[in-house]
Amino acid sequence: MLFRRRQPETRLQRLRAALWPRRSWRRSLRYMQKRVLRLRATPHAIAAGVAAGVFATFTPFLGFHFLLAFAIAWMLAGNLPAAALGCLLGNPATYPLIWASTYETGRYLLASEVPDGHAPEGLGAALSHMDLAAVWQPYLKPMLIGSLPLGLGFAGLSYVAVFLAARSFQAAKHRRTETGRRLRSERLALGDGTP
């Protein structure tokens, strides 16, 4: 194979790479920023896509975040690749924070009592038999209710930030393109002997 490693990665190395970037967090975040800004779409479409992905990440529907983000982005005329990149906010490092904050916010909004700190009776059996009714009231309902204001808030912030960044990036790219085009036409004019 042309691009295969000489020494295949072990499972531990793959797990480490999935949880922690190979180079640094700063480089990985800079790479993602460039990926978003270089998308060929309007600033609104890019920002709406990222905002849809960020909102979907706050919902407790783990495994359906991409589908939910694509549906929301489609309704908002957003960019689907930008929605997928917005979903990357949810990762093993951020999910505990997101879940705890959505649960606490939902519990506060519902004014519900705190469970005694133990999982509901038969949680493992309920999840293995897909009995969501057993975990709906104590955990999923507060998380869903709490995800709405938090998700909308973070989606709004990400929309504004990405819209301004995309508009600025595209304007700078347009200026560079126009300057290059003008310089080429001046060189051609000088090469032809015309002033």
From TrEMBL:
The UniProt entry, under InterPro entries, shows: DUF2062 (IPR018639)
Where does the sequence pass through the membrane?
45-76, 144-166
Source lineage: Bacteria, Pseudomonadati, Pseudomonadota, Alphaproteobacteria, Hyphomicrobiales
The record ties this protein, via Pfam families, to: DUF2062
- PANTHER family, sorted: SLL0298 PROTEIN
Record protein name field: DUF2062 domain-containing protein
What keywords would UniProt list here? Answer: Membrane, Transmembrane, Transmembrane helix
Q: Which domain of life is it from?
A: Bacteria
DUF2062 domain: which residues? 27-174
